[in-house]
């Protein structure tokens, strides 16, 4: 029986100290689990959040949604949210990390939506961001990424 | 809205006092191919045991240790799961028990917390806390995306793969609510890069001025490169002991009079408006009208830091941190988070954090010099080592040993450097009590520690 090398040898970057280049090339198979309705709804240009109907819990909606109410840990209910909001804060990203799928500069925003207790992070697909600026939701239905990037906002 | 139940604000208590007896570290570099992570940790442990006036040899020390704590942020970076097992073996501590702590950027502070819990409960009486991070195996852009893997991957990471941007969102809101000029933020960058000039351990020492920061390229507005922490490789080791062991090993142990932890939602987005948790130096009148125009904690404040400070100050009997402490190390990952933290830990009331810098309080010679180590902006952020490094710097200050570790030309030569002509003496005269803040995420975990001379 002879054992043969079937993988690739590693590239040497330096001899002293000996430094090698160790490539990685694989993927993760990731499920959105109980938050699937939110991501699927983006395909239909709908913004879904969750809320809890229990009397002692936060009455407003959560976006990002939560399959369980964080106050009572019982299953949440899905509700459709308004597709308008205002910019709570913003930054324009010039130097993103690896894996970023959008062109730069890219204005990131945090969005205030009536009846929602959170201020979800998103981005402005066009225009210059300002705090307090009214915006409306935009959905990437052509060539979707199947990520949170399929929701964006534009000046209202 | 978060409402505290009757048990939530119980003040933590150690059953036995906990002491710091020794500290050691490597220098911190962008790239450190000369040494493996295990070698870096060995260097840090060697410095701790051999250069801190302990009355034992390394062999005797190892014969006394009974538990170890390891501190590393991300297995991604070193590309080695269970790296702590390799390092524990390399340091020769097998078969003693150990645990590895992971709380993001606050891992170092929480590793010290874990070590303190072991000592305070009587579970162990001599515990090395070993922190390190190897951030040099990937390009900086990939490093930033690894760090952003510690944001919510479904709802945040894709939005930039860049933590600086997540802080920039907070910065923009903070500036909007509190009208802080960029010049004040820039002063923090100038200060901490400047203090790093006097540290042989520092990665990014710079003599710069406010204009340099204002002219610097933006990573994500309003944060420029010079306002962001470095990405480092290096290690730091702090040794904890109970009282009997501490005085057996050294004539000058430093007491860890308190260490406490707080948390808040990983996503900044999810922070609901609530009543301000008041520190001992605040009253409801302190914030009369404050919430008329602002939410709390909103995006301007860190509940995790406030929670940790509330517990630690009450545990240590701190009634006014600026008066009661002689120096502090804050987690200056970004200039903006430093200003926010000044408020969270009560150095100024909410909305007035800028005054802590503008008044000169934050500088050597001021009322509470902060980040004389050079901090994360000037000296290091080898994440798992960071909170440990902070407490070692304070430990040396409280022992009046700053000069031994920073101003000896041999220490500089050890790291291939020459002591600079313009080195400053950064020893705080008569330093007796100090605070250290270790911080993760956009405030997902924060620990506050109080160290004091006995």
Q: How are helices and strands ordered from N to C of chain A?
A: EEHEEEEEEE
Question: What CATH architecture of the domain at 19-138 and 232-249 in chain B do you see?
Answer: 3-Layer(aba) Sandwich
Give the tally of β-strands of chain A: 9
Helical content of chain B, roughly?
25-40%
When the domains of chain A are counted, the total is 1
Identify the CATH homologous superfamily of the domain at 19-138 and 232-249 in chain B. Thiolase/Chalcone synthase
- The stretches of 5 or more residues of chain B where confidence is low (pLDDT under 50) are none
Q: What is the distance, rounded to the nearest whole angstrom, between the alpha carbons of the first and last residues of chain A?
A: 71 Å
Major sheet strand order of chain A: 7-6-5-8-9
Weakly predicted, low-confidence segments of chain A: none
* Major sheet characteristics of chain B: 9 strands, mixed
Strand order of the largest sheet of chain B: 3-2-4-7-1-8-11-10-9
Mind telling me the CATH class of the domain at 19-138 and 232-249 in chain B? Answer: Alpha Beta
Structure classification of chain B: alpha/beta
Number of DSSP helical runs of chain A: 1
What is the distance, rounded to the nearest whole angstrom, between the alpha carbons of the first and last residues of chain B?
A: 42 Å
Shape of chain A: extended
What percentage of the residues of chain A does DSSP assign to strands (E)? 25-35%
């Amino acid at each position: 029986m002879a054992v043969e090398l079937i993988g690739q040898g590693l590239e040497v970057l330096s001899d002293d100290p000996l430094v090698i280049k160790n490539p990685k090339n694989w993927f993760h198979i990731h499920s959105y689990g109980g938050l699937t309705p939110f991501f699927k709804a983006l395909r239909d240009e709908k913004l879904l959040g969750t809320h809890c109907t229990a009397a002692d819990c936060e009455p407003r909606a959560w976006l990002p949604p939560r399959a369980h109410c964080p106050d009572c840990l019982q299953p949440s209910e899905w509700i459709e949210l308004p597709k308008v909001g205002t910019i709570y804060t913003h930054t324009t990203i010039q130097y993103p990390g690896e894996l970023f799928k959008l062109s730069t500069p890219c204005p990131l925003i945090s969005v205030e939506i009536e009846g929602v207790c959170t201020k979800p992070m998103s981005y402005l697909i066009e225009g210059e961001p300002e705090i307090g600026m009214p915006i409306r939701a935009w959905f990437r239905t052509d060539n979707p990424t199947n990520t949170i990037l399929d929701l964006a906002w534009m000046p209202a | 809205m978060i409402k505290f139940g009757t048990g939530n604000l119980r003040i933590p208590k150690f059953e036995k006092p906990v002491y710091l007896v020794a500290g050691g570290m490597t220098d911190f570099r962008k790239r450190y191919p000369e040494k493996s992570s295990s070698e870096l940790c060995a260097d840090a442990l060697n410095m701790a045991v051999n250069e801190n006036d302990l009355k034992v040899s390394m062999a005797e020390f190892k014969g006394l240790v009974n538990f170890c704590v390891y501190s590393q942020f991300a297995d991604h970076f070193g590309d080695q799961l269970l790296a702590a097992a390799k390092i524990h073996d390399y340091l020769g501590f097998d078969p003693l028990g150990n645990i590895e702590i992971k709380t993001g950027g606050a891992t170092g502070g929480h590793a010290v917390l874990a070590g303190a819990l072991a000592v305070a409960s009587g579970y162990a009486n001599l515990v090395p806390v070993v922190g390190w991070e190897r951030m040099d195996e990937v390009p900086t852009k990939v490093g930033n995306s690894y760090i952003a893997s510690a944001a919510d991957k479904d709802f945040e990471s894709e939005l930039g793969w860049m933590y600086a941007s997540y802080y920039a969102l907070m910065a923009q809101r903070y500036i909007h609510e509190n009208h802080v000029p960029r010049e004040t933020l820039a002063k923090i960058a100038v200060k901490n890069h400047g203090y790093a000039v006097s540290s042989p351990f520092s990665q990014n020492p710079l003599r710069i001025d406010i204009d340099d920061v204002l002219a610097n390229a933006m990573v994500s507005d309003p944060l420029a490169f010079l306002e962001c922490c470095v990405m480092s490789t290096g290690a730091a080791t702090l040794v904890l002991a109970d009282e009997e062991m501490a005085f057996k090993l050294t004539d000058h142990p430093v007491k860890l009079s308190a260490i406490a932890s707080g948390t808040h939602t990983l996503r900044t987005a999810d922070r609901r408006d609530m009543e301000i948790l008041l520190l001992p130096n605040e009253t409801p009148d302190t914030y009369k009208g404050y919430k008329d125009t602002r939410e709390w904690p909103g995006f301007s404040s860190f509940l995790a830091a406030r929670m940790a400070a509330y517990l630690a100050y009450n545990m240590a009997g701190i009634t006014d941190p600026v008066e009661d402490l002689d120096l502090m190390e804050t987690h200056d990952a970004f200039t903006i988070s430093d200003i926010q933290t000044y408020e969270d830990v009560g150095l100024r009331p909410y909305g007035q954090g800028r005054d802590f810098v503008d008044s000169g309080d934050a500088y050597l010679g001021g009322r509470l010099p902060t980040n004389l180590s050079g901090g994360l902006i000037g000296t290091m952020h080898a994440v798992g080592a960071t909170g440990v490094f902070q407490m070692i710097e304070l430990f040396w200050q409280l022992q009046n040993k700053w000069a031994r570790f920073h101003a000896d030309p041999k220490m500089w030569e050890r790291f291939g450097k020459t002591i600079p002509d313009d080195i400053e003496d950064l020893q705080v005269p008569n330093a007796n009590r100090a605070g250290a803040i270790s911080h993760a995420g956009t405030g997902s975990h924060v620990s506050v520690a109080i160290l004091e001379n006995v």
